[in-house]
TrEMBL record:
HTH luxR-type domain location: 143-213
Protein name per the record: LuxR family two component transcriptional regulator
GO terms, biological process: phosphorelay signal transduction system; regulation of DNA-templated transcription
Coiled-coil boundaries: none
Pfam families: GerE (PF00196), Response_reg (PF00072)
Annotated positions of the 4-aspartylphosphate modification: 52
InterPro entries: CheY-like_superfamily, NreC/VraR/RcsB-like_REC, Sig_transdc_resp-reg_receiver, Tscrpt_reg_LuxR_C, WalR-like
UniProt superkingdom: Bacteria
Key words of the record: DNA-binding, Phosphoprotein, Transcription, Transcription regulation
Gene3D superfamilies: 3.40.50.2300
PANTHER family named in the record: TRANSCRIPTIONAL REGULATORY PROTEIN NARL-RELATED, TWO-COMPONENT RESPONSE REGULATOR
Lineage: Bacteria, Bacillati, Actinomycetota, Actinomycetes, Streptosporangiales
SMART domains for this protein: HTH_LUXR (SM00421), REC (SM00448)
Length: 213
């Protein structure tokens, strides 16, 4: 798998490159700013991009905006945002881009296992969706009123839905039956005025579409 990395911190950038190569991936380019990211993607046509949010020249949201531009040009380009914080202005838009396929947003300080990170990257590259639950929580706070209708258990289930969990996985996590999970999911989508969907990926897309709307 060919990867382009965009990270302004040299040690982290080189560390990521070495890590991914150790797991058998090819790092086509490792750059330190948003313009270089766009150029590297055009030159190397990677399978997946790993980018930070805050990068030169402005150290604001350049990485995220570059990712949005790249997804606009090529919706099938897989992008994993790896950041220290949630940039709420563009995060939901990015996560819903390209029909929501091949996209992820993880927080650096919440990644506790190297193999878990590499597996998340592989999922994104394969067209999956990977979203840190904390990212979801912060984005959901922007839409307080509709979410106030959810019960505490429905909030728990919604967080797990946004991670792309299956009904069986949610049931195991919460120690309830799959039938109970299905009932909670039906209630969530009804309260948020979203149609229920058949699989985990579409449920994540529905949550993200709601956040963007």
């Amino acid at each position: 798998m060919r990867v382009v990395i965009a990270e302004d911190a040299v040690l982290l950038r080189e560390g990521l490159a070495g890590l991914l190569e150790r797991f058998g991936h090819t790092v086509a380019a490792a750059v330190g700013d948003a313009p270089a990211l766009i150029e590297a993607v055009a030159a190397h046509r990677p399978d997946v991009v790993v980018t930070d949010v805050r990068m030169p020249p402005g150290f604001a949201d350049e990485g995220l905006r570059a990712a949005l531009e790249l997804r606009g040009r090529e919706p099938g380009l897989a992008v994993l945002v790896l950041s220290q914080y949630v940039e709420q202005t563009y995060a939901a838009e990015l996560l819903a881009s390209g029909a929501g396929a091949g996209i992820g947003y993880l927080l650096k300080d919440r990644i506790g296992d190297v193999r878990e990170f590499v597996e998340a990257l592989d999922r994104v590259a394969a067209g999956g969706t990977v979203v840190d639950p904390e990212v979801v929580r912060q984005l959901l706070r922007r839409r307080r009123d509709p979410l106030a209708r959810l019960t505490p258990r429905e909030h728990e289930v919604l967080g797990l839905i946004a991670e792309g969990r299956s009904n069986a996985s949610i049931a195991k996590e919460l120690f309830v039956t799959e039938a109970a999970v299905a009932k909670h999911i039906a209630g969530i989508f009804a309260k948020l005025d979203l149609p229920p969907a058949a699989d985990g990926h579409r449920r994540v897309l529905a949550v993200l579409a709601y956040l963007r709307g």
